[in-house]
Each structure stands twice: as C-alpha cells, then as structure tokens.
Specification:
Elements lengths: L24 H8 L6 E2 H10 L4 H8 L5 E2 L1 H7 L6
Antiparallel strand pairs: 1-2
Helix pairs in contact: 2-3
Organism: Dactylosporangium roseum
Protein name: DUF2795 domain-containing protein
C-alpha cells in the first residue's frame, strides 16, 4: 500500500467507520484526577487539550464556570452521567 499523503489519513477498506484513538472526556477526567482531590477549571482544560479531545468536548470544558472541582463535581457539571 502506498504511504498516505501528508495531511490525509489512510482509510481502512471495508470498515465503514473512521478509526480513531481519541480518548473520551470521561477517561481524560479519570486520568486527570488520579492522585488529585480537586482541579481548577484551567487545569482540566489544559489536560483536555493535551489529550487532543475533539472540539465538542473542549467546548463543554470551556463552558465550566471558573473554580475548583472534585471529579464527581465536574462530571455532574458536564452532565456526563454514568458510563
């Protein structure tokens, strides 16, 4: 198979769906809060950006009011519900 051109992802024949390794917001939060009781909105935002979350997830994080959050508080504020 020829190498993909720069800026273009290679598709997988027959899958019918895009292959992605983007983490979801919940898993980023779980990782971010490991060993941390509370995180500021800005720290949560930095970790979300570093994890290369999709734009819709970053928009949700950006909408959080300023302040510090425990993991359960940010999950509730983002309305992630239970998995």
């Amino acid at each position: 198979m020829a190498p993909a051109r720069p800026g273009f992802a290679r598709s997988r024949a027959g899958t019918g769906a895009a292959v992605t390794s983007e983490p979801d917001l919940r898993s980023v939060l779980e990782t971010a809060f490991t060993g941390q009781e509370r995180l500021s909105r800005e720290e949560i935002r930095r970790k979300a950006i570093a994890a290369d979350l999709p734009a819709d997830a970053l928009t949700r994080v950006d909408a959080l009011p300023e302040g510090e959050y425990a993991e359960d508080e940010v999950i509730e504020a983002l309305r992630l519900g239970s998995a």
